[in-house]
Write a structure and sequence with these properties.
With 335 residues, the chain is α/β, with parallel strands linked by helices. The chain is built from 16 helices and eleven strands. 38% of the residues lie in helices and 18% in strands. The two termini are 27 Å apart. It binds iron/sulfur cluster.
Length: 335
């Protein structure tokens, strides 16, 4: 299983999975932050972004992710002030320049984006801004791997670890999973050659019976990761249970703001903590994200669910497995 959605896209784009012997199957993991952001949180974003006093900032790929019945683009079309930014610090700048508005940044992601999102909070506090907050949906890879491996239907025999997550966190935190589940892991990059090497190292480990973590992305990753980034994360975030879209709640799989940063917590500021939502009953994205089914196993794939009319986030996100299968022509539409 490749954990990361960026790796899934590279694999499908370059047809790496089709070049492999039949005995080797790649299954696609849950490592797309847009895909796993729960529906309730999208609905909270929609509620906040619809307010006339708010400038709502997000990375572009969240704008078309469907909530219950609409998305951020439709809020924008209806007159909401929704803006695409390329860094959370751009949102802090907007807060500084618009003191009569509340500026909210949609802080989603894995370990990779956490330091930058946190820096925006620290920057807002340093500037004394009272009109900046973040809507947080941060998730962590190791608890998700634990949940996948603990499922009795799991058929994963090796992991390609996400290189960029390991750049921040290192790969020492995977050692307990290695010992618990006795399954090889390879830290892997994102270029086709990186992925080919990651797959090769995994097969070598499996054939030799070695249960180890191999670092096949040493030009970017070392065992300990980036200690400064980790310190910043621990200063502002604390671990929490987090719901993953299509999968459900995974214990201690998320980060949230510590109570001393409540003033920057958009869920508290805008009192949107209790929104509940229902997924489309046709969507099997949860099984896709756990590697149990492939996107083109879904009855809605290429029919009711298309990139411009997505039923689930894995079809709309640039890193989603369903979008990758559709974009790169894996369009065997089920009867
Ligand atoms: S094709 Fe659409 S409906 Fe089916 S699993 Fe993917 S996102 Fe969900």
């Amino acid at each position: 299983m490749e954990i990361c959605g960026g790796q899934t896209h590279a694999i499908v784009r370059y047809g790496l999975d089709q070049l492999l012997p039949r005995e080797i199957e790649l299954v696609h993991g849950p490592g797309c932050p847009v895909c796993v952001t729960p529906l309730e949180l999208i609905d909270k974003a929609l509620a906040i972004a619809s307010r006339p006093d708010v400038i709502f900032c997000s990375y572009g790929d969240m704008l078309r992710v469907p909530g219950t019945g609409r998305d951020l683009f439709s809020v924008k079309a209806a007159g909401g002030d929704v803006r695409v930014v390329y860094s959370p610090l751009d949102a802090v700048d907007l807060a500084r320049l618009n003191p009569d508005k509340q500026v909210v940044f949609f802080a989603i992601g894995f370990e990779t984006t956490a330091p930058a999102n946190i820096m925006s909070v620290l920057q807002a506090r340093a500037l004394g801004l009272k009109n900046y907050s973040i809507l947080v949906s941060h998730v962590r890879v190791p608890p998700a791997m634990n949940a996948i491996l603990a499922d009795p239907s799991c058929r994963v025999q090796g992991f390609l670890l996400a290189g960029h997550v390991c750049t921040v966190m290192g790969y020492h935190e995977y050692q307990p999973l290695l010992e618990k589940f006795r399954i090889p892991m390879v830290v892997t990059g994102f270029e086709p050659l990186d992925l080919a090497r990651g797959i090769l190292e995994t097969i070598r480990l499996l054939e030799s019976g070695k249960v180890e973590i191999v670092n096949a992305y040493s030009r970017a990753v070392d065992l300990e990761g980036n200690p400064q980034a980790q310190q910043v994360i621990m200063k502002v975030f604390e671990e929490c249970d987090r719901k993953w879209r299509g999968i459900g709640v995974i214990p201690l799989s998320g980060w949230r703001l510590k109570p001393e940063y409540d003033e920057f917590n958009a869920e508290i500021r805008f009192e949107v903590e209790d929104i509940e939502a229902q997924e489309s009953p046709m969507c099997i994205a949860g099984q896709v994200l756990q590697g149990l089914r492939k996107p083109n196993d879904c009855p809605a794939f290429g029919r009711e669910c298309l990139p411009d009319r997505p039923l689930g986030a894995t079809m709309v996100s640039s890193e989603g497995a369903c979008a990758a299968y559709y974009r790169y022509g894996r369009v065997t539409i089920p009867e």
